Amino acid sequence: MSGRYQVAVIGSGSGGREAGLLAGRNKLRTAVIERAQIGGTSFHRGSYAVQALQGCARQFRDSWRSGRFGNQVDLLKATLHDWIVAQAQVSSRLSNSLKKEFRELNVDLLGGHAEFVDQQTIQIVDSRGSKKTIAADNIIIATGSRPEFYGSSTPRMVNSEELLRITTLPKSLSVIGAGYIGCEFASIYRTLGSEVTLIERKERVLPSWEPEAGARVEEALRERGVRIILNHDVSFPHTRTTEERVLLKGPDGAIIDADLVLVATGRKPNTENLRLDLVGIESGSFLKVDSQMRVLDNIYAVGDVNGISMLDSTAFSQANVAIQSILGRKSAYDRRWIPCCVHTEPCLASVGWSESEAMAERIEYLAVSDQISTASDSKQSVVDPEQTFIKIIIDAKTHHLLGCLVAGDHAPVLVNIAAIAMKSGLTVENLCEMALVQPSASEALIGTLRKVRL
Question: Which of 37, 221, 273, 329 is the most buried (most CB within 10 A)?
Answer without folding.
Answer: 221
